[in-house]
Amino acid sequence: MYELAILVAVVVALMAAATAVAGPVGRALWLVEYALLCGSVVAILFVMGFVCAEVVMRYAFNSPIPGHLEGAELLMPIIVFLALSYTQATRGHVGMDLVLDALSPAARRYATMATLLVSILVCAILAYFSGKNALQLWAYDDVTMTPPYFKTWPAAAAIPLGYGLVSLRMFVQVLHLFDPERFPANEPDTHSGPAVE
User: Fold this and answer.
1) 76: Cβ contacts below 8 Å, ≥ 6 apart
2) Shortest CA distance to 5 belongs to which of 170, 125, 113, 115?
3) Per 3-state DSSP, what percentage of the chain is helix, strand, and coil (rounded to 5)?
4) Contact 81, 162 (CB under 8 A)
5) Coil, helix or strand at residue 143
6) Side-chain half-sphere exposure of 43, counting CA atoms within 13 A
7) CB-based contacts of 159: which residues, under 8 Å, 6+ apart?
8) Which pTM was predicted?
9) pLDDT, tens digit, for every residue of 38-87?
10) What average pLDDT is seen over the chain?
11) How far apart are alpha carbons 72 and 83 in whole angstroms?
12) Which of 11, 25, 87, 145 has the fewest CB atoms lying closer than 10 Å?
């Protein structure tokens, strides 16, 4: 519990610091999100080719690729978590907005800010503890159970990276909702989600 209280205090301090430099942080965040999205797309294409090659090798040549299952599994967190913050920036996550749609624009704005703040805290906690896990896997030099013994820490490291960036993106969105003139959105204008005024 003590560790969690310290984490909450650190998150609040980081949010205060990010407020002072929100403009440059938002612009840099957008560039990082786009670069990580490209990495996620490359990983998807690699997994598609890898799985196709495995099927061909297994059924056409009776010579399966060693570690095909573990390799594909280790790439899944990388695919998902590298694109997490970009998806939040483009409002691509599935949301339940039945109650929000019934609210007035001002109430919707405050409710969205409140849910984003709670989400920031949850994602920051998940980023911290998954980061501890990734660091432990790296320290132990953990590998998969079967040859060719892939290292597991890169897949684990994608999780805190994704959660950390999505926390930062949500904070930029909170600042924009709080004062749109002072804090620009720093996200694409082509989103199909509901507008929050």
Assistant:
1) 47, 155
2) 125
3) 75, 0, 25
4) yes
5) strand
6) 22
7) 77, 81, 126, 127, 130, 131, 133, 134
8) 0.86
9) 999 999 999 999 999 999 999 999 888 888 889 889 999 999 999 999 99
10) 88
11) 17
12) 145
- Omega within 30 of 0 (cis) for the link into 77: no
Cβ neighbours around 163 below 10 Å, total: 23
Contact 186, 172 (CB under 8 A): yes
Report the alpha-carbon distance of residue 45 to residue 149 in Å, rounded: 22
Q: Is 142 helix (H, G, I), strand (E, B) or coil?
A: coil
Characterise 50 by phi-psi region: left (phi > 0), alpha (psi -120 to 50), beta (else).
alpha
pLDDT in tens, 159-174: 999 999 999 999 999 9
Structure tokens at 47: 């997994």
For 145-158, give the DSSP string.
SSTT--BSHHHHHH
Cα dihedral across residues 9, 177, 195, 33: positive or negative: negative
- 42 vs 37: CA distance, rounded Å: 9
What span, in angstroms and rounded, lies between the C-alpha atoms of 80 and 23?
27
**Run of H or E including 60:** helix 22-61
Rounded Cα distance, 197 and 193, in Å: 12
